[in-house]
């Protein structure tokens, strides 16, 4: 295994994976907060709209994060890193 492959594997394992995990958790918590806000403000149109926006942005964030994770995995597989 070349030094470059080892480097890519270590960068993904030690830097990218924890960052992606943290961002995924943040996006999921935003989505959950939107659900709570949506349900708690069932009678207030403004609170429902705010909750809906939080849910939408949480889902968009998760899609972007998982897409980035797929791209990183594709690069890792392309260079043959462990």
What is the chain-wise order of helices and strands?
HH
**Could you tell me the strand content as a percent range?**
under 5%
Output the radius of gyration: 18 Å
Which percent range fits the helix content?
over 70%
Distance between the termini: 9 Å
Largest sheet: none
Shape: rod-shaped
Low-confidence sequence ranges: none
Structure annotation, total helices: 2
**Structural class of the helices, strands and pairings?**
mainly alpha
E-strand count: 0
Estimate the mean pLDDT confidence.
Answer: 90
What's the quick description here?
By secondary structure, the protein is mainly alpha-helical. The protein has helices at 3-40, 45-79.
Structure description:
The protein is mainly alpha-helical and 82 residues long. The chain has a domain at 28-82. The chain contains 2 helices and no strands. α1 packs antiparallel against α2 (45-79).
Topology:
Layout: H1 3-40, H2 45-79
What keyword list fits this structure?
rod-shaped; 82 residues; mainly alpha; 89% helix
